[in-house]
Amino acid sequence: MSGPSRRRPPARSSARTEAPAPRVEAGPTAAERPRPRPSAEPSRPFLLDFFPLESAAATRLARFFERLRAGRLSTTRCPVEGELHWPPRVACPVCHREALDWVDLPETGTVYAFSPVLAGAPLGMESDLPFIVGLVDLDGVPLRLFGRIVGVEWPALAIGARVRVEPFAVDADRVFYRFRFVSNPPGPITPSSEQA
Ligand SMILES: [Zn+2]
Fold it and tell me: What is the pTM of this model?
């Protein structure tokens, strides 16, 4: 809050002949707002960058990114209940324990659902259009992960396709995962949409 010296006295409720237009206190402009991100972070717009906080100084989930950078998609598991979390947690959502195990996840899975992104890409991803996002059931674990699916054009992708996890460098400082197409299930591909 700003200092009290700038506060206006409350408006008198009994208006005279001409009521003044209601005033709206202007908030700070974009340039005046404090910038929460460290200057060392990369240059993408903060609010549209879904994964800007990867360093140990910025997130207690830094191990997820460290392991991903080493090629291992992993998550946390509570040693008490034994259940995998997704996304990884800093504390167990059941017993609130903070000392959690880190476990590697399977590298392969099956496409449960997908959608092409044909327009309206997030800032910085316009040149990737069209691209595919989907839900993938990882083999052998009860986890369904959301992510980009690469290596196939969307009209040629089928529900049930096999994919594998692929860690990749977002930029020089950051890493994330995506899924790379391996093969479609046997049988004809059902058209995802009808062309007029
Ligand atoms: Zn627990």
Answer: 0.71
